[in-house]
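Sanity check. The docking grid for FE3-S4 cluster depends on where the pocket ends up, so I'm generating a full predicted complex first rather than guessing from homology. Inputs follow.
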Amino acid sequence: MDLTKEEEAILNGEKGEVPERMLRLLVRLGEIYGADKMIPIGSVQVAGVSYKSIGEPGTAFLEDLAYKNARVKVLTYLNPAGMDLENWKTIGFPKDFAKNQIRIMNAFKQMGIIVTSTCTPYLAGNLPRFREHIAWSESSAVSFSNSVIGARTNREGGPSALAAAILGKTPNYGLHLWENRQPEIKIKVTAPLTYNADFGALGWYVGKQIKNKIPYFTGITDGNTDQLKALGAAMAASGAVALYHIEHLTPEADLVNTNDLDTIEVGPQEIQNTYESLSTGKNPDVIILGCPHASLREISEVAELLHGKHLKKPLWVCTSRVMKEAADRMGFTTTIEQAGGHIVADTCMVVSPIEQMGFKTTGVNSGKAANYLPGFCKQEVVFNNIRILIKEVE
Ligand code: F3S
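Predicted complex below; grid placement will be based on this.
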């Protein structure tokens, strides 16, 4: 890699131990993937935030960095933590878990990281622009920023994202380069897509088929940002799709080369089969919405559906603290709580310890959550659209 004089000085240890260690990590990564140089980035999103995911070794690593005065150079947000950082007691998160989660948040805060823990940073004040280079970690956020915004990021691991944040740079390879953003397969969608869950089912099915290829969708005539985040999240979960294009909808779709691509068709039967294969259980004992973290539009829809109802079982809507505060002001939180639900901020059903909270079967409207809940949280899953799920617990 071509390194600048300043980068050479960092590698020689002239700027201290932490920058040297961080740059060594990024240079090694760059060399593995054939990067020619380091490039400046506009923002970072760091994964590996929940105590459930990183445990004691990860927590000690972060505390050590904070103790050694590591500071981030660019706007840096966090992936969901393991609990609601303000209302964890009311919702019933275990006390020992909370103590360790708070240690993690303190370490990040000391490094200058904005402790907004969300997989939808673009809805909560970390919005990149078209073609901006960024270093984000969480797979649905990576997919959304690459595909819907047209920013450029590889899927960073927790340590490489943290290193990028501390240096304000990332190695120039993969999806940072235009030639690597070209579609590799066409997906012709003939199924009608109504609910956000339909987009999640489509994404899950396509991810399974194409693994880590870049798809170019045709036949999706409309889709709001909530639906596109559901689509990308599920594709990144069942496959490893970090970028997709949709004809006439996403910003790079008219710029890429679509000649000579094989085509896969997805019709109503494939969507129906996906709902069936992801639903491993019956009679959910909790409904958890907001994967990826709910937007204000999604929260308002839940509030409208729950207005005047009394649920027989718990319902959570996972979101960022920023959206939760807006929902509080709009009265959506009160409506949802009066029905017996909770808006749970800063965390989600997959990274929080729901299996320790007595839940065995979870109802979700997210293809991504349906994909991960059995393995990560030992849950049976009911995967369906929001209206049917709410009927299950009314
Ligand atoms: Fe976000 Fe958790 Fe889903 S991190 S995308 S809500 S699994």
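Relevant for the grid: The mean pLDDT is 97.
Also worth noting: The longest strand covers residues 185-189.
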